[in-house]
Amino acid sequence: MAANCGFILVIMIMLTTKASADPDLLQDICVADLTSAVRLNGFACKSNVTAEDFFFAGLAQPGVVNNSVGSLVNAANVLKIPGLNTLGVSISRVDYAPGGLNPPHTHPRATEIVFVLEGEIDVGFITTANVLISKTVRKGEVFVFPRGLVHFQKNNGKVAAAAIAAFNSQLPGTQSIAATLFAASPPVPDNVLTKAFQVGTKEIEKIKSRLAPKK
Ligand code: GLV
Ligand code: MN
């Protein structure tokens, strides 16, 4: 019950605070026409709008976590909810298996606030002064990852955990540090990575092969 109240509080704060990282809106609604070839800062507005454009049921159930990191993010952003276009908010659900990690990543366009639905997670972000700010966050509690800073969550518990993450952007963007450096296409040259990480080509190639997108 207390957990539900906390969740509602996070959503209310999100919706009532003028803290959007996205540009402000110039009209009531601008439901995204995801099929339009017109490229704007955001999406073109479509004309036939229904309640379905503002609705998404996809976060109701836990995601099936069956990957090597043990976590799954289900992002309800403008690509899933066209009505979010120009509104400057979005939301995700993250499910973590026991031991699961949401690997270090950043959101270039949003601050993130997470609310723990189930279990507990060890979270952290790193400042530009290279200071790690970390904490264990339990069911019903909230933690903030400032815009653009590298952050992660790890379920060190013996049971599954889940969190709801809210963002002040319709499309926060996610740049996973490991995938960005070791699974880019075309690849980041080995001699950039060997110098950056102070290791040999063999080590770099090993990481690249592990992170290569599965065919
Ligand atoms: C969690 O950090 C998320 O981006 O969903
Ligand atoms: Mn995040």
List key phrases describing it.
alpha+beta, Jelly Rolls, 2 domains, five-stranded antiparallel beta sheet, binds glyoxylic acid, binds manganese (II) ion
Task: Describe this protein's structure.
By secondary structure, the protein is of the alpha+beta class. It folds into 2 domains: 2-170, Jelly Rolls, CATH 2.60.120; 183-215, no CATH class. The chain has 4 helices and 10 strands; from the N terminus they run H-E-E-E-E-E-E-E-E-E-E-H-H-H. The chain has helices spanning 2-16, 177-182, 190-197, 201-211, and strands spanning 71-76, 90-96, 101-106, 112-118, 120-126, 132-138, 142-145, 150-154, 161-167, 175-176. The chain is globular, with a radius of gyration of 19 Å. The site of glyoxylic acid (GLV) has 9 residues, from strand 2 and strand 8.
Summarize the structure.
The chain has 215 residues and is α+β, with helices and mostly antiparallel strands. It has four helices and ten strands; from the N terminus they run H-E-E-E-E-E-E-E-E-E-E-H-H-H.
CATH class membership of the largest domain: Mainly Beta
- What is the N-to-C succession of helices and strands? HEEEEEEEEEEHHH
Order of the strands making up the biggest sheet: 1-2-9-4-7
How would you sum up the major sheet? 5 strands, antiparallel
Mean pLDDT: 93
Provide a count of the helices. 4
CATH topology of the largest domain: Jelly Rolls
The figure for the number of domains is 2
CATH architecture of the largest domain: Sandwich
Category from helices, strands and their pairing: alpha+beta
- The gyration radius over C-alpha positions equals 19 Å
Instruction: State the low-pLDDT regions, or none.
Output: none
Shape: globular
